[in-house]
Design brief:
Blueprint lengths: L2 H6 L5 H13 L11 H11 L5 E5 L1 H8 L4 H6 L2 E6 L12 E5 L3 H12 L6 E5 L5 H14 L5 E6 L5 E4 L2 E3 L5 H6 L5 H21 L5 E4 L4 H19 L13 H4 L1 E6 L14 H8 L1 E3 L2 E6 L15 E6 L5 H6 L4 H26 L16 H37 L1 H8 L5 H11 L7 H14 L6 H13 L5 H12 L60 H10 L6 H8 L2 E3 L19 E7 L4 H13 L6 E6 L5 H20 L1
Parallel strand pairs: 1-2, 1-3, 3-4, 4-5, 7-15, 8-9, 9-14, 14-15
Antiparallel strand pairs: 6-7, 8-13, 10-11, 11-12
Helix pairs in contact: 6-7, 9-10, 14-15, 16-17, 16-18, 20-24, 21-22, 21-23
Length: about 675
């Protein structure tokens, strides 16, 4: 489906729903029209309602939730003049009301009560990121009554917002090392039960934010099943306890309307955690740090050479991906070469617009125009009105130009395109020969990439890799003193993998439209020599050797499962047989057993959750599948315990490999 078609769809995304819930809280939990995007909501409210200026008090977790979807200007529009961390020394503002948005902990409650005692604010609107336990609610009530100032407490709300949304349909519970904890022999049963309960709580928050109680389907025999059972019980209790007046959460029994929550264990597909993707967003996440919509790029020292391990970063440069970043919205899901051409096209368009303005106004540079000028010329006034928008557009283009320049530098330095290439055909002799050639490239700054590609080949080769090839690879890493504990775990995993791309059948995602990328000459005039958005020109030849590799549009294991559950009529028998055995829970059935024998039915929307780490590759593949259903587009939200980089996940399984090894030695 073309980008324009996707962008024009009026579906409310998970991010929209979270923004709406946060804005409602910032406007003191008044009912708002929350069916529009963020700008419309805030401008509309700002224009229609009397703004009450307020202070916002956050903790570290709630700061992460808000900063991922709103900016300071958005808070200002909602009447927030000051925002502070709850543990900071805060100056008293006795004439100003305060909104607290914090985690439900004893420590936070004690601080709020102390603020109340000292009359730090005029009114207190207390909001917890998730459900406040009964014992803490009683503690809060008791402490407030002792102060004799309970009239200042205007509201106490559970907000169910304890999850992070970084893309329209992507969320994370930010529970790190979940895979390690759940699979480490040293982890106690109590620790596993506690972690599964935390994950169920996080999913409970996400489900309530979507305002719909879904059918739950979950893979059996692992943590996903435990979490599904715990979540089913929580949702069932919620349905029973919800007043009949709150019908919005309880409406709709039709599966197409209700949707499905699919909970899967990470073992469904290990390879996707290590794959080298050619998608722009996936590459940014893999190569640089992309966290809460901020890209952190290391600035390398000037030491050059084959061995870049000696070149230590002197500093880092951060770029914010704004929620309304037009280029990211239109290009993050595209192959890197296509997105690279589009950023140059965007720059050329900007230059044309700037030239038109300078021609109309007679100035030599648009920066010479004064937005506050009282010039009477209608033409100049119209141009000046366009300046803020044009400046913002230029800043966005500059950001992506700099990101592309840094990506190209890494691509050339580490030969990353070669890893992507070999991973496309894991079973062939030619691929194995090519991989051994890559090992001889003389580079030691890409050892992690080499290990990742080997893991992908090992896990996705249908017939298995020859022993002598495996031995050659192992010897290479030992010669370079590189830790291969991860391989011990991967070898073991391959033996008992219940699900992999070998037991699920892939399908093509080619939609037959004309939006497929056409090969052309990749020149990107001078992008490689770019600094801070200033083109230096004449160096396009440096990157012309980087091939225009196009990812094959096909489903990966997680998408095959989602396809079988959401669209059984068009799924393969092989995939249906796999998902037929999944747990089926209907939390709306409040009498008798709410667990039912699975039945095949179609759904239009789903929330897909992976226990043990997720990645942008799966997110993008699911979105591509959802939008490839031209006549019946699906809505798929994707989340995980944490969105984990290949390096982070490699560290988790390295520790598992070492742990299993020490257990065997004992």
């Amino acid at each position: 489906m073309a980008v324009e078609e996707i962008a024009s769809r009026k579906d409310i995304s998970l991010r929209d729903m979270q923004i709406s819930a946060i804005l409602k809280m910032l406007f003191l939990n008044k009912d708002l029209n929350n069916n529009d995007n963020i700008t419309t909501i805030t401008d509309d409210i700002f224009n229609q309602q009397e703004i009450i200026w307020k202070v916002l008090i956050l903790d570290i977790k709630s700061t992460a939730t808000i900063s991922s979807v709103l900016r300071v200007n958005d808070l200002l529009k909602a009447g927030i003049t000051v925002h502070s961390l709850i543990k900071q020394d805060r100056s008293p503002l006795p004439d100003v009301p305060a909104i607290y948005f914090v985690s439900p902990t004893k420590e936070n409650i004690d601080i709020i009560v102390n603020d109340l005692k000292s009359d730090k604010y005029s009114e207190f609107y207390i909001n917890f990121t998730s459900s406040l336990p009964r014992n803490l609610l009683e503690d809060l009530a008791q402490q407030v009554s002792i102060t004799g100032k309970s009239d200042k407490i205007k509201q106490v709300y559970d907000q169910y917002l304890d999850f992070i949304v970084t893309e329209p349909e992507l969320f994370s519970l930010e529970i790190s090392n979940a895979y390690l904890t759940l699979n480490d022999p040293k982890t106690t049963e109590e620790e596993i039960t506690g972690l599964c309960a935390n994950i169920a709580d996080g999913l409970f928050n996400t489900v309530l934010t979507t305002n719909s109680i879904p059918i739950i389907r979950a893979a059996k025999g692992g943590p996903a099943e435990i979490i599904a059972e715990k979540l089913g019980t929580k949702l069932r209790d919620f349905v029973i306890n919800t007043n009949s007046s709150s019908t919005s959460t309880l409406q709709g029994n039709d599966s197409l309307e209700r949707g499905v929550l699919i909970i899967l264990d990470r073992n469904i597909d290990f390879a996707s955690m290590f794959s080298h993707s050619w998608i722009y967003q996936c590459m940014v996440f893999d190569i640089f740090k992309l966290s809460r919509n901020t890209v952190t790029i290391p600035l390398e020292s000037k030491e050059n050479g084959t061995d870049n391990t000696t070149a230590k970063p002197l500093a880092t440069k951060k770029y914010d991906i704004e929620p309304n970043d037009f280029f990211w919205m239109e290009n993050s899901h595209l192959p890197f070469p296509e997105a690279a051409e589009n950023v140059e096209a965007a720059l050329n368009t900007y230059k044309e617009e700037a030239a038109e303005i300078t021609r109309k106004t007679g100035v030599t540079n648009i920066s010479d125009l004064d937005p506050n000028s009282n010039n009477d010329t209608v033409q100049i006034q119209e141009v000046v009105k366009k300046l803020p928008e044009l400046t913002a557009k230029k800043n966005t283009i500059d950001t992506h130009m700099n990101i592309f320049a840094a990506l190209l530098s890494q691509l050339e330095s580490k030969s990353l395109d070669t890893f992507f290439e070999v991973e496309q055909d894991p079973g062939s002799t030619k691929t194995r020969s090519r991989f051994l050639d890559i090992l001889k490239d003389g580079k030691t700054n890409n050892l992690e990439d080499k290990l990742r590609s080997f893991i992908v080949l090992y896990l996705t080769s249908t017939t298995g890799l020859p022993k002598d090839f495996v031995q050659n690879v192992e010897n290479y890493f030992k010669e370079n003193d590189y830790d291969i504990n991860a391989l011990k775990y991967v070898y073991k995993l391959r033996e008992f993998m219940q699900l992999s791309n070998m037991s699920l059948q892939n399908k093509s995602l080619e939609d037959g439209s004309d939006s497929a990328f056409k090969p052309s000459n990749l020149t990107l005039s001078g992008i490689y020599g770019l600094t801070e958005g200033k083109l230096q020109g004449g160096v396009g030849s440096l990157i012309s050797g980087i091939k225009k590799l196009l990812p094959e549009k096909k489903t990966i294991p997680i998408t095959n499962v989602v396809d079988a559950i959401m669209d059984p009529l068009n799924s393969s028998q092989k995939n249906l047989e796999t998902t037929d055995s999944y747990l089926y829970i209907d939390p709306k059935i409040t009498r008798g057993s709410h667990t039912r024998k699975p039945k095949r039915q179609s759904y239009n929307k789903s929330l897909v959750f992976v226990v043990g780490g997720g990645n942008y590759l799966e997110y993008q593949n699911l979105q591509e599948w959802a939008h490839s259903q031209l006549h019946n587009p699906k809505k798929v939200m994707y989340g995980s315990t944490a969105i984990t980089t290949p390096a982070e996940f490699l560290n988790e399984i390295s520790r598992l490999g070492a742990s299993n090894s020490s257990n065997n030695d004992a």
